[in-house]
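sry for the spam today, last one i promise. struct tokens for design, 565 residues
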């Protein structure tokens, strides 16, 4: 009996020992499961925060980087703090490392810099630029999606978590590391849209103004909806001398359908292949966070149906898409500058400021009886080949036809009431017209036919009067100026009046015009025209109808910001 009791006591001791061991193992298993769960949560939260921070930082990157990199870093840091509950707000940013960083371009890539901040269990690393070979790019780069190194910013978030039973397992803890790379919208070629009207004024009001009974109607094309984009912040409180229209004072707005009669600004809807409606859009930088959004538009215009649809926020687009297509160079941060020619600069250099380039004939000195002022009684003139019209004022009250070549006008060109100008009447190839020191003026009854012709205005303006005349202006179909109708860097006001017949095809680029103004009495269908201007005013009682052709315009990167890793 004593031996049996002793045996039972021994077995009880063994059971207690086994139970104790199992309890320890169970605790370790539970602790491990809890620790692994916490690590998984850290990884999920860390990835989300890294994505937010990188995308926010990319939104601050200007094309080409440069001085905006430090602000991009600060924005990314702020998003990390705001979205990490264990990271107390108000922590100083580590972004001083980006101060004085040289401008990043395709041909001059600075070494990657990193700002490192430590807050509690977190170590945050913000890096710029992100080169193709950077480990953050994971060894795969698709340029159309990933952009270039100068448009990318990277965020790495590491969090160390101590194990709950570290002393039992012999391990103190583990670090989770999550990364994200985002790109700005600079010249990535991704997610582009055909935008009918892009206005570049960075701060002023009345960037788009329809007054009286004027109507601006942006139609859909090729399934794409009508789109207007306006870069102004609406913060110009002290306008420059002579530019009071920019002042954002009382009763002035960035987008304004003035008057209570029939004024209208309307971006129309499109339809996809299945017939579903794609609503039009009016994008406004003034509605982005931190901007002067009280001046973006007047709520009464939306309520009364004078402004439709309601504008929404979007980052600035700038003139970069046009520069990068037609004048690609390091100075405007074009990523293809190493392999492409800046075509506008090349044309300027070729034409020069005086004299005739090789192969160009001079008018009037080498033509018997030639004169700079042609009257209605003067017979129609045919110019064959390349011509330099060496007139301070070339006035046409008859018809001049230029065929088989390009034209350089030394001064002003005025087409009178009974006159006309025809360029490239048999358009088997593309041509260009260059104005060295003058403007292009058309009387309201005159006629203009510019077929497959690009016009460059150096310091003048276009002024086409409204009336019974005819205007037909078609952009080149191929070559370096494909789809480009007009390029003018002039700050002078450009005027386009309603015509008895108006056909415009291509891109009208007047990035400094103060403003580009349309006046007219009747409806005008600007099929296939895209206007990129500083400001636009539409007056009178006419309707300006613009429908951009996706195949005859400069695609605009509207997505802007993209998370790529």
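last one done:
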């Amino acid at each position: 009996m004593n031996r049996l009791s002793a045996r039972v006591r021994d077995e009880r001791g063994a059971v207690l020992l086994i139970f104790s061991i199992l309890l320890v193992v169970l605790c370790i298993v539970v602790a491990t499961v809890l620790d692994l769960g916490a690590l998984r949560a850290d990884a999920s939260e860390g990835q989300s925060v890294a994505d937010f921070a990188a995308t926010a930082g990319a939104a601050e990157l200007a094309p080409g980087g440069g001085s905006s990199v430090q602000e991009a870093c600060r924005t990314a840091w702020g998003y990390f703090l705001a979205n990490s509950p264990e990271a107390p707000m108000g922590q100083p940013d580590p972004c001083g490392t980006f101060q004085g960083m040289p401008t990043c371009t395709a041909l001059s890539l600075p070494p990657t810099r990193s700002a490192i901040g430590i807050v509690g269990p977190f170590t945050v690393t913000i890096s710029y630029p992100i080169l193709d070979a950077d480990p953050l790019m994971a060894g795969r780069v698709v340029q159309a999606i990933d952009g270039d190194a100068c448009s990318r910013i990277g965020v790495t978030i590491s969090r160390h978590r101590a194990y709950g039973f570290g002393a039992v397992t012999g391990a103190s803890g583990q670090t989770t590391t999550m990364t994200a790379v985002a790109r700005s919208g600079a010249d990535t070629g991704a997610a582009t849209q055909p935008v009918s009207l892009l206005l570049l004024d960075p701060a002023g009001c009345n960037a788009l103004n329809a007054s009286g009974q004027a109507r601006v109607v942006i139609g859909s094309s090729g399934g794409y909806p009508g789109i207007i984009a306006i870069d102004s912040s609406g913060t110009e409180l002290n306008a420059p001398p002579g530019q009071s229209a920019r002042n954002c004072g009382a009763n002035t707005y960035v987008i304004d359908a003035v008057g209570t009669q029939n004024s209208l600004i309307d971006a129309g809807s499109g339809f996809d292949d299945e017939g579903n409606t794609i609503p039009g859009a009016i994008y406004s930088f003034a509605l982005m966070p931190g901007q002067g959004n009280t001046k973006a538009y007047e709520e009464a215009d939306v309520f009364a149906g004078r402004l439709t649809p309601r504008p929404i926020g979007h980052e600035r687009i700038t003139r970069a898409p046009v520069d990068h297509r037609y004048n690609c160079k390091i100075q405007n941060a074009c990523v293809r500058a190493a392999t492409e020619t800046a075509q506008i600069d090349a044309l300027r250099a070729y034409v020069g400021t005086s004299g005739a380039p090789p192969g160009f004939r001079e008018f009037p000195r080498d033509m018997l009886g030639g004169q700079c002022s042609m009257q209605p009684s003067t017979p129609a003139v045919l110019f064959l080949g390349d011509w330099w019209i060496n007139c301070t004022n070339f006035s046409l009250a008859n018809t001049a036809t230029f065929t088989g070549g390009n034209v350089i006008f030394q001064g002003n060109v005025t087409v009178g009431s009974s006159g006309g100008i025809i360029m490239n009447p048999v358009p088997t190839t593309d041509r260009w017209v260059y104005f060295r020191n003058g403007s292009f003026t058309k009387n309201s009854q005159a006629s203009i036919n510019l077929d497959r012709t690009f016009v460059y205005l150096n310091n003048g303006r276009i002024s086409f009067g409204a009336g019974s005349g005819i205007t037909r202006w078609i952009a080149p179909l191929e070559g370096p100026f494909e789809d480009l109708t007009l390029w003018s860097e002039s700050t002078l006001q450009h005027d386009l009046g309603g015509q008895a017949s108006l056909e415009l095809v291509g891109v009208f680029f007047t990035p400094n015009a103060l403003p580009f103004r349309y006046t007219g009495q009747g409806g005008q269908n600007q099929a296939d025209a895209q206007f990129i201007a500083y400001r636009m005013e539409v007056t009178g009682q006419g309707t300006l109808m613009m429908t951009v052709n996706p195949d005859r315009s400069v695609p605009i990167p509207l997505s802007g910001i993209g998370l790529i890793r």
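The chain has a mean pLDDT of 81. ok im logging off now
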